[in-house]
Amino acid sequence: MAGKTLTRADLAEAVHRDVGLTRQESADMVQAVFQTLSDTLAGGDSVKLSSFGSFQLRDKTGRVGRNPKTGEEVPIDPRRVLVFKPSQVLKDQIDKALSKKS
Fold first, then answer.
1. Which of 100, 82, 87 is nearest to 45 (CA)?
2. What is the pLDDT of residue 101?
3. DSSP element (H, E) containing 85
4. Which has the closest alpha carbon to 27: 7, 5, 8, 6?
5. What is the 3-state secondary structure (H, E, C) of 17-67?
6. 27, 12 in Cβ contact below 8 A?
7. Cβ(50)–Cβ(87) under 8 Å?
8. I want to staple 51 with a disulfide (CB 3.0 to 4.6 A). Which of 6, 35, 89, 92 is the partner?
9. Within 13 Å and on the Cβ side, how many CA atoms surround 60?
10. Strand arrangement of the beta sheet that strand 47-49 belongs to
11. 53 - beta bridge partners?
12. Taking each helix axis from N to C terminus, what angle separates 23-42 and 8-19, rounded to the nearest 10 degrees?
C-alpha cells in the first residue's frame, strides 16, 4: 500500500491552483496556518477542525519501562504527547474511498 505523501509544497500548489493566489502567497498562507496550529498547541490549547478532526495534548504519567533486549528496568519520565482524533466525517470519507478500491 505504497502511496504518495502529501507535503507542504503540495498543499501550497493546491491553494495556488484552486484559489488562484500566486505560488508565493499560497506557500505563505500554508505556512501561516501551520504556524497558528503549532503556536496554539504549544500554548497548551486544543485545535478542532470541523469535519476533519481535533489535535489535543495529553499528559502521560511517569512509569517504569523495560529494555526489551536486556530486561533492565528504565524509568520513563512524565511527558505531554500530541494526539489526533479524526472526525466521523473524515472516517466515513476514508472508509468510502477504501471500499471503492476493493
1. 82
2. 77
3. strand 79-86
4. 8
5. HHHCCCHHHHHHHHHHHHHHHHHHHHCCCCEEECCCEEEEEEEECCEEEEC
6. yes
7. yes
8. 89
9. 12
10. 47-49, 53-60, 79-86
11. 49, 86
12. 130
Amino acid code (one letter) for 34: F
Residue 2 pLDDT > 60, yes or no?
no
* Cα 95 from Cα 97, distance rounded (Å): 6
- Which tens digits make up the pLDDT trace of 46-98? 999 999 999 999 999 999 999 999 999 999 999 999 999 999 999 999 999 98
| CA–CA gap between residue 23 and residue 49 (Å, rounded) | 25
Q: Looking at this protein, which amino acid is placed at residue 23?
A: R
For residue 82, the tally of other CB atoms under 10 A from its CB is 10
Rg for the chain (alpha carbons), in Å?
A: 19
Query: What integer pLDDT is reported at residue 100 of this predicted model?
Result: 84
Q: How many Å apart are CA 53 and CA 62, to the nearest integer?
A: 28
